[in-house]
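FIELD: query
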Amino acid sequence: MKPLLLLALLISQISWAQVEFQANVIPAELKENAHGVVRRHETTFTVKAAGEATKRIRTVVTVLDEQGDDHAKMVVGYDKLSKITSLEGALYDASGKLIRKLKKADIEDYSTYTDYNLFDDSRFKSASFPKQPAYPYTVEFVVETVEHNLMFYPAWIPQDEEQLAVEQAIFTVTMAPGLSLRYKEMNLPTPGVVETLANGGKTYVWKLVNCPAIEFEPLSPPAREQLPIVFTAPTEFEVQEYKGKLTSWNDVGKFYHSLNNGRDQIPDNLRQQVIELTRNEPNTAGKIRKIYQFLQDHTRYVSIQLGIGGWQTIEADKVAASKYGDCKALTNYMKALLKTVGITAYPALVRAGENEPDLLADFPSFQFNHVILCVPDGRDTLFLECTSQHGPVGYVGDFTGNRHVLLILPGGGQVIKTPTYRPADNLQQRRIVVNVTEQGDATADVLTLYKGLQQDDYSSALHRLNQEDQRSWLLKRIHIPAFELNSFVYQEQPGTIPAITEKLALTIHRWATVSGTRLFLPLNLLSALSSATPQIQTRKTDLELGASYDFMDSDTITYHIPKGYVPEYQIAPVRIESKFGVYTAQLTVENEHITYIRKITMHQGRFPSATYSDWLDFRKKVAKADRNQMVFVKSN
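FIELD: result
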């Protein structure tokens, strides 16, 4: 009987294995709103010592349509501290029949090198199948790695995007005796389970079953607040003979300081040059401004990602000689230059990026991708972006602004916040003079001041594009049905909150509509807002208005219309007020001169889901007001 029992068990296992490749057994609720279904997602992370671990990831994904094809690829990064020991894969048709296994020719190996990555040992392996069968089809990948950079433990995100369902997923972390795991669970239906092993180590297990696809609602909170995630981190780690603890932000700061302490020495001739450069500056602000300009004029940014060099800076004297460095090196170099004239500054680690979520302040770990410099001075504390060759001193924009950073002090790390730019800082002030002809054509002279976050795109275009490309870029930003751009001029106004003025000369075809004795004149030339995206279903998530919604716009437009026209009726002043902002518009008419003044102030923030209907109503009313037009009748 025993051989028969073993045979039955083997047949059962084979049948179960085939089921996970068959598309027709996927529950209907998992296919709803999904482009792909994760049939199995198995991650095993085994920590053998403070400086060594192995990781095995097995994924089985059924691709339902063309938009899910990206899930049929496995991309794995590696470097000198992370070695890929195995990468296997298989392709199955809708019935679960094996079509082919992954071959060496199906795996590409390439560097992450770019024009600003001068030194980089990071590489990627990308595995995919050259020809895919009819939908639905299933792919299986198994990748195994050996990890020697245990500053970082994996984050488990089996459902890593919208319109992707998960049938089964499991995450197992095994810790060697004497080592402890730190973790943070987010949006999980059930918490993980911890088991103590016979050898004194511990195993942590998390599971997900039958998670339907998610569709992110417009202006919803960050994905990490909606998707099931487990973040993990060590308490003690070792990388390239450097040892560290990771139980608090103070520990993170201590480790970073130990890696980089003493690397801020510069040559004597440079020291004398900096002293002479700032000799006539009477205050600290003037000295910082002069030295920051010196940094911008004499260095350039390159990325350096070599082993622990991703976290350890090049020495300041080497930057002085080579004239280049990454964010760590240029920040450290600027710190050294300031130190020469008695100004103390500290590096600040930050999760940079316009769309990057803020630091997980309650989970100390290496969450950063950038370094800036902080010059403490009470209310006048400055943050310096040392990789920019044109940005004004003290301005960080939405790349590193309005978020928490880790200040690296000699005694450890301290979490502080970078500046937040309010509506009064983010201005668009526009004055326009429009001359309208009898046929409804017009010429317009436009003068606009962009300030704060509203000048960022213009500053980038001004410094990165030539005149011809600037023109092409500008033409795409002007939303007038038929026009010609006769000329444009930009002028920068440096400052802690920078500004740019823009002068445009436009010829506009049929801006006003002539019908018999009537002239129909739209009032908002360049700043009209559209309605917000409506929702058919009941709103589930909060409404998240980010930094781009913190602004203040004003338009003053003077129209000169042909003689002999008088208003057919008066347009009453408009005022729309809500928790999201305030909108006003008013009109005055003096003979052939019409002055239209429009102002809108918006506020960023998070609002309860129930307020989304109020948001739609506010935007609908603003859009309607922006479409207002004046009707004139030609008098006898």
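FIELD: remark
Residues 268 and 615 are 60 Å apart (CA to CA).
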